[in-house]
Amino acid sequence: MPLSHSWPFILEPGAIGILAMAFAMDLIIGDPERLLHPVRLIGRTITSGESVARNLPLREKAQGAVLAILLTLSVFITVDLGVKISGHVSKLLQWFISAILLYYGLSLKCLGDEAMSVKKALVENGIEAGRQRVSRLVGRDTDSLDTAGVTKATIETIAENLVDGVLSPFFFGALGGPALCMSYKAINTLDSMIGYKTGQYLKFGTWGAKLDDIANYIPARLSVAVISLASPLVGGGKPWYVWKVALSDGQKLPSPNSGLPEAAFAATLGLRLSGPSRYHGKLVDRPIIHADGREPVIQDINSAVRLLYVSSFLFIGAALLLGIIIRNWN
Fold first, then answer.
1. What angle do CA 209, 212, 216 make, to 5 degrees?
2. Is the pLDDT reported for residue 263 higher than 50?
3. In terms of Cα–Cα distance, which of 176, 121, 238 is closest to 6?
4. Does residue 305 carry a pLDDT above 70?
5. Taking the CB of residue 175, how many other CB atoms lie within 10 A of it?
6. Residue 223 per-residue DSSP state
7. Using 50, 70 and 90 to split pLDDT, how confident is the model at 3?
8. What is the 3-state secondary structure (H, E, C) of 201-217?
9. Cα 126 from Cα 219, distance rounded (Å)
10. CA neighbours within 13 Å on the CB side: how many for 95?
11. pTM of the prediction?
12. In whole angstroms, what is the distance from residue 67 CA to residue 52 CA?
């Protein structure tokens, strides 16, 4: 029978297999640059939608709210309708399309590969190549970063994107299927494109940033749990210590979410993260996370990627196992 679209999605017949297939596809294939990607399509829609929204006879913040709400709803309705229509054609087609869409929501392999490419650039071609490579991953200015700075920026983006690129999309996929997963990706893409708290997006991007904060609130806190459990598996700190640092330092950053996985990574790897950084030519005095840690070295990128993978496997494995237990219990 076709998927019934009950909530949570993970309890539907065939859903556990669909979610597992999506994760396996991400691990094997990653993010092929040449294929049409829904997230890239969402990005183009945001660019076009911004010009339309800014011409509405509303205040700037309200213009941004219209864009954020309509984009999220449009993505949800479009994906949900597409999945439902495919179910009337063939159950297998519906399962395949659902798995593909969920796969497009994940970016574990892509994140790990990009991080390792920064390390490779630093080792093989020096600091300038490392700066150029890490500039693809972070929003801060990279032209004056030293080796420790490039390494730190890489590890910080791994920690943050564990939530944005793996835990949150899988969480929403397990909860509401492909439609909710893609809606989350729309919110996350909106935040990355217009969620800045400076310049032309100070007011216009408010709703995009707030929606992203709300969407990532639970997954960011779940990340502390899985990173704590993963810590001893990668030779890191004791779970209770990771929890302690995450609770004490995780709320130091302006974002209510990104500091939590970053603090957990810092405690696990024994590193000192965050601190002052330059954005658009201006020095931003960000607080130091895990001040007792040491400065990162290039090899710490390997450890961070290993922690990324182990944490992801623990989270997704636990979610799938919980789904199996609940289905069998009922």
1. 145
2. yes
3. 176
4. yes
5. 16
6. H
7. low
8. HCCCCHHHHHHHHHHHH
9. 36
10. 16
11. 0.94
12. 9
Residue with tokens 């076709």: 2
Give yes or no for a contact between 254 and 269, defined as CB atoms under 8 angstroms apart: no
| pLDDT score, position 34 | 63
DSSP states along 135-194: TTT-SS--TT--HHHHHHHHHHHHHHHHIIIIIHHHHHHHHHHHHHHHHHHHHHHHHHHH
Pair 139, 279: CB distance under 8 Å: yes
What are the backbone dihedrals phi and psi of residue 237, each rounded to the nearest 5 degrees, phi first? -70, 170
- Give the Cα separation of 27 and 25 in Å (integer): 5
Q: What is the rounded end-to-end Cα distance, in angstroms, of the chain? A: 19
- Listing DSSP states for 234-294 in one string gives GT---HHHHHHHHHHHTTSSSSTTTHHHHHHHHHHHTB-EE--EEETTEEE-PPEESTTSB
Model confidence at 134: pLDDT above 60: yes
Quick check: 243 pLDDT over 70? yes
Cα separation, 265 vs 161, in Å, equals 12
pLDDT above 70 (res 4): no
Digit-coded pLDDT (tens) for 191-242: 989 887 777 888 998 999 999 999 999 999 999 999 999 999 999 989 999 9
Q: CA distances (Å), 145 to each of 119, 158, 265, 285, in order?
A: 14, 18, 21, 15
Q: Sketch the domain layout of the chain as residue ranges.
A: 9-329
CA-CA distance, 88 to 94, in Å (whole number)? 8
Task: Give the Cα separation of 290 and 271 in Å (integer).
Answer: 7
